[in-house]
Specification:
It comes from Chryseobacterium manosquense. It holds the Pfam family Glyco_tranf_2_5. InterPro entries: Nucleotide-diphossugar_trans, StrF_dom. This is Streptomycin biosynthesis protein StrF domain-containing protein. It is a single chain. Strands 2-1-3-12 form a 4-stranded mixed sheet, sandwiched between helices. A 4-stranded mixed sheet has the order 4-14-8-9. The protein has a 3-stranded mixed sheet with strand order 5-13-10, with helices on both faces. It has 10 helices and 14 strands. The chain has a single domain (about 1-215), classed as Spore Coat Polysaccharide Biosynthesis Protein SpsA, Chain A (Alpha-Beta Complex), CATH 3.90.550.10. The longest helix has 17 residues, at about 220-235. The chain is α/β, with parallel strands linked by helices.
Length: about 270
């Protein structure tokens, strides 16, 4: 049995998804719709929905999706039965860098099981042959047991609709194993907007979580993400002083190595 929580502001998407879930899920369920045309951040909406849920398994779901396989609910409940599993999703990555980051940036660390559209235009079909153990998950689909959500509720200090997913899933990953499922197939009809507001949300939320204690630092990965971070700061035309302050904050030899650390000091 599954409680599906949706923060909704686009009725045409919600109506199509509601019908699609009824036709495909294959298990008893309820939908908790939080009408949210900009009334609150998604963390507040999701926590409100979870408080109303009557079942022990929760799915926090974007409304601009449809499911492409039958009985996906049964596959999800199988994964949630394991007390070792934390959050189940359909896209994410296994490495958490020291800097603010986008989970999809580094090839071979990210796993995706989504058919991605931009409105009605097919962009790319991503598939997985097997489930993958990961750390950070994309917010399009986040499922967990009620007890896991209770221990790690969505962080309402994160306002708006960005960065909440990384924060939520990474905090849980220190205690549980997060998974990208290969058996839940969905189409997603928007790509999000990677603008300055999105990037500033990544920066503001980064201090809210830490990489799992079990993660071993990979300096090549760290240098890649530090460089991407610097590129974003330039792309969004951050003021010179603010840019410098942020780069120095994350310029740690423990992560990027002493050569890069010294080079960054004297740029």
């Amino acid at each position: 049995m599954l409680s599906i929580i949706i923060s909704s502001y686009q009725p045409h998407y919600f109506t199509a998804l509601e019908k699609n879930i009824a036709e495909t899920i294959g298990v008893p369920y309820e939908i908790i719709k939080i009408d949210n045309p900009g009334l609150m951040g998604i963390c507040e909406a999701y926590n409100k929905g979870a408080e109303k849920a009557k079942y022990e398994n929760l799915l926090f779901l974007h409304e601009d999706v449809i499911f492409n396989n039958f009985n996906w609910g049964k596959e999800l409940l199988k994964l949630l039965e394991s007390k070792e599993n934390g959050v189940i999703g359909v896209a994410g990555c296994f490495y958490i860098p020291n800097v603010p980051f986008a989970w999809w940036e580094l090839p071979f660390t990210e796993f995706i099981n989504i058919t991605q559209f931009k409105d009605s235009e097919l962009i790319k079909q991503y598939t997985l042959e097997e489930d993958k153990n990961i750390t950070a998950l994309d917010g399009v689909f986040l499922a967990c047991r009620r007890a896991v959500w209770k221990a790690f509720p969505f962080n309402e200090n994160i306002k708006g609709f960005h960065a909440y997913d990384i924060d939520f899933s990474v905090r849980i990953a220190d205690s549980y194993q997060n998974i990208v499922s290969s058996k839940i197939l969905l189409s997603h009809f928007s790509q999000g907007k990677m603008d300055e507001k999105w990037f500033r949300s990544l920066i503001q939320s980064r201090d809210c979580f830490a990489a799992p204690r079990s993660q071993k630092t990979n300096k090549k990965y760290e240098f890649f993400f530090y460089t991407k971070f610097e590129e974003y700061l330039s792309q969004f035309h951050f003021p010179k002083k603010e840019k410098r302050k942020l780069l120095l904050k994350y310029n740690k030899p423990k992560f990027i190595g002493y050569k890069a650390f010294l080079r960054n000091l004297f740029k």
